[in-house]
């Protein structure tokens, strides 16, 4: 009988695993350069205008995990924890249709500022935020799902968002760098204001394809199977499987890894000795609830199936966000 607890521990380790692809290295390099500039300026008591990094990718590309991994694994950074006086960065997931006042309230809470006044206006709350950012020596704010900042159709509201971001970057007492991760819609905001645009370094997570990523995906399948402690079936045809897997992931890197995770989960819980194509098709069927004709791992004309419409909007379990 399978030890399901052990299986789920192995799956948890797989979900925590991270593939360091080209966008990861690009973001790491950009972030490290900016951080070291800030630390050097601080050591000399100099105040320099901060910069931003925009990490742009479609839903399922893996941008959120990419940013979190770089920040969390940087041993020179501190995030908000009870008892920490200094905080190098804070992270906010921007809710849909968020106002800048509410965003300021969230930031104030993250920075540990407690206010008993409920009637503070937006300007006062942002003043409190800037004071806390300076007092806690915060270098960066990570705004995830940053495209929500420009959800309002009101041009004045959108312009106010841009102005607030620029104020954070060039504050005269404590400039704060920004990490903006979001969908390509975020580019609208960056392109709308030349002053903001020149302060932003861009990292894009492009779509993947059989042509560009087949060898990489095949290597990941083998590596993940080894970590999951399961063999690959001799009947597994990578020339057929890899293009199907990439298509099932809607040509997004994060989604593709997620789909592989679902197949491994099915194989391990079934008690299979080998991972085969049937585990991919069953994982797709179980998760998407689709008929065989819409199953990318079964259908002959699988390229005609739109994976996003079938089910990817529901998936983030294996880190496809």
TrEMBL record:
GO molecular function: ATP binding
ATP-binding recorded as keyword: yes
Domain ORC1/DEAH AAA+ ATPase: 49-190
Annotated Pfam families: AAA_22
Alphabetized UniProt keyword annotations: ATP-binding, Nucleotide-binding
InterPro entries assigned: AAA_22, ExeA_AAA_ATPase_DNA-bind, P-loop_NTPase
PANTHER family: GENERAL SECRETION PATHWAY PROTEIN A-RELATED
Record-given protein name: ATP-binding protein
Source species of the chain: Octadecabacter dasysiphoniae
Organism lineage string: Bacteria, Pseudomonadati, Pseudomonadota, Alphaproteobacteria, Rhodobacterales
């Amino acid at each position: 009988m399978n030890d399901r607890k052990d299986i789920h521990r192995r799956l948890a380790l797989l979900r925590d695993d991270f593939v360091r692809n080209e966008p990861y290295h690009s973001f790491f390099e950009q972030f490290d350069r900016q951080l070291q500039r800030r630390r050097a300026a601080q050591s000399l008591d100099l105040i320099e205008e901060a910069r931003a990094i925009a990490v742009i990718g479609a839903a399922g590309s893996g941008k959120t995990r990419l940013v979190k991994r770089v920040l969390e694994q940087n041993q020179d950074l501190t995030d908000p924890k009870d008892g920490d006086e200094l905080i190098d960065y804070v992270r906010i997931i921007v809710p849909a249709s968020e106002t800048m006042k509410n965003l300021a309230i969230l930031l104030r809470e993250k920075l540990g500022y407690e206010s008993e006044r409920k009637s503070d206006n937006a300007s006062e709350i942002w003043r409190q935020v800037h004071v806390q950012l300076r007092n806690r020596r915060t270098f960066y704010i990570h705004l995830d799902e940053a495209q929500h900042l420009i959800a309002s159709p009101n041009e004045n509201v959108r312009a106010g968002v841009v102005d607030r971001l620029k104020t954070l970057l060039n504050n005269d007492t404590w400039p704060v760098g920004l990490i903006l991760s979001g969908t390509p819609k975020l580019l609208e905001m960056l392109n709308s204001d030349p002053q903001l645009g020149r302060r932003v370094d861009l990292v894009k997570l492009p779509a993947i394809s059989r042509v560009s990523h087949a060898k990489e995906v095949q290597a990941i399948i083998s590596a993940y199977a080894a970590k999951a402690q399961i063999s690959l079936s001799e009947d597994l045809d990578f020339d057929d499987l890899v293009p199907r897997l990439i298509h099932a992931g809607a040509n997004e890197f994060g989604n593709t890894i997620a789909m592989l995770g679902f197949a491994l989960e099915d194989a391990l819980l079934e008690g299979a000795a080998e991972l085969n194509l049937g585990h991919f098709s069953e994982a797709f069927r179980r998760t998407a609830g689709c008929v065989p004709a819409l199953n990318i791992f079964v259908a002959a004309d699988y390229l005609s199936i739109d994976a996003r419409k079938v089910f990817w909007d529901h998936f983030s379990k294996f880190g496809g966000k």
